[in-house]
Each structure stands twice: as C-alpha cells, then as structure tokens.
Amino acid sequence: MTAFRATALLFAATIFAPQTLAFTALSAKQTLAVSKNSARISTTTFLNAIPPELHDASFLESSSQLISRLTQYQDKEAAQGEFYFFFFAGSGAGGIGLAQIPRIYSELSSIRALAGEGPSEGGEPVNTGLSSVFYPTMFRKDIEKAIAKIPSSAKISAQGTSTTYLASKGYIDITDFVASLAKSGCNPLASNALFEALSGGGGSCVSPDVLDEKLAKYRSANDSVAAFVSDLQSASLTKLSAYGGLAFLLFLIFALIFESGFTAFL
After folding, report:
1. What crossing angle do the helices spanning 208-220 and 224-265 adopt, rounded to 10°?
2. HSE on the CB side for 207, CA within 13 Å?
C-alpha cells in the first residue's frame, strides 16, 4: 500500500504542478562565471507543458477525489509505516531541494550585482518585461554592441579555456562566451543576458548550432534588441517555472511527512 500511495501521489504531483522541475546533473559542479566584469551561476532546467485536456474541470474534480482517498489512512499502524517511508525518502529529496534555495539566491544576487559594472554605451533603457525579475536595467546600445561583437561559435570554442565535459564536446560554455565579449569591451550584464537568451535558460552551456542560429536571427531582424528580449523572456519564464515547480514539490514532500506523522502519533 505504501508503494502504491507514494507512486500515485508522485504521479498526481506531476499532473497538478503548474510547471514541473528537473535538475539535470550533467556534472558535479555548477559553473560560476565570475571575473572582474562578470558573475553568474547557471542552472539547467526545463519546462513541461500540461496537455489541454487536463484543464477540464470534471477531470480535476475526479482526480482530486482520488488523491483525497489515497491520503486517508485506515489505522495508526499503517500511518506509522508510511510516516517512516515518507520521512526517510522525503528527507533526502527535501534536503536536496532545500539546498537549491541558497544557490538560487546566490545566482540572483550575482546577476543583479552586475548593474553598473564594466563599460557601458548607455542609451535608451530596454524594457525586458518578465526578465526584470532577474536582470537590472540594460541599455539598447550595450545590447546592440554585444550582438554585433559575438564571435562565431567555432571561434569561441577554439579560444575557450573551459575544462567542463560539455565544453570539451564542442558546446559553448558561459565562461568562454562572456570572456570573448569582454575582450571586445562589451557590457558584462548585456553579455550574461545574451547568453541566457541564446541558451534558452538551459544552463551553463549552449549548443554551437543553437548559438549560431539565434545569433543569425538577431542580426537579420528589423529590431535585434526586440528579438533578443523575446528569447530572454522565454528563458526567464523557464526559470520561474522551475522555481515554482521546486516550491510545489517541497511543499508536497513535507506535507506528506507532516500529515502521516500527525495521523500516526497524535
């Protein structure tokens, strides 16, 4: 019964979470691009879309009734068994999730600390919409200069010094990307935001094909800054969805522990 209930609840969490979170452990360490002109931590995330049919009210009502039945304990002995299961299994998962909170805070702080750092061309402030949650005010001329100065992916890779596994396979690492633009006197905040837009919020590395394709799109657009802002907002939405998914799953884990413990011992 414990395994069945746990499986069912995890399945329910996947369905009812507005966005679900996946942290992909491609390596043991996260890349922190910190230098005199730049600082940033990257997190690998992805967004799962909810099928439209799951929005149906009757489906949600019947499913919520199923979840309610699954969380009804028949006796204290069963509740105690499930409490120990959820406590030991959930504590490990919850601990991993809680450990992400200071890292997320550090990421946000390091990005916002770039405001006013390095050279700037000034000009008109750019409205980044949703992305302003992460990024301080950026200026049009800084973004336009960075877009114009980005080298090809082949050149960035050839001149890069990153030793990560993905970088060794030809992917463009944020450290190498930001360093290449720093050599051209680009604003570090604009450089980091550009990498975020090019990578889609997907972490500290981006495929060379994706980078070259998006860069060509920016340069051929009537308004390169608008094209960049659109991709940056999509990347920011992916991150916010991941953070929301993390919060939901942490709530679910600890709710299961407290609910089963309350029934078992009180």
Report:
1. 130
2. 5
Count of CB atoms within 10 A of residue 264's CB?
A: 18
The contacts of residue 60 (CB under 8 Å, 6+ apart) are 54
Tell me the C-alpha distance between 191 and 199, whole Å: 12
Q: pLDDT per residue over 147-163, tens digit each?
A: 999 999 999 998 888 88
Please give the biggest Cα pair distance in the chain: 69
| pTM summary value | 0.62
DSSP structure class, residue 113: T
Q: In whole angstroms, give the CA distance from residue 140 to residue 211.
A: 20
CA-based nearest residue to 205, from 167, 240, 233, 159 = 167
pLDDT digits (tens, 9 = 90+) for 203-233: 789 999 999 999 999 999 999 999 999 999 9
- 40: tokens are 């940033």
Rounded to 5°, the CA angle 113-118-196 comes to 60
**H helices present in the chain, as ranges:** 2-16, 57-70, 76-112, 140-149, 153-159, 165-168, 174-182, 188-199, 208-220, 224-265
CA dihedral 213, 218, 222, 227 (to 10 degrees): 110
Which burial class, exposed, middle or buried, applies to 21 when counting CB atoms under 10 A from its CB (0-12, 13-18, 19+)? Answer: buried
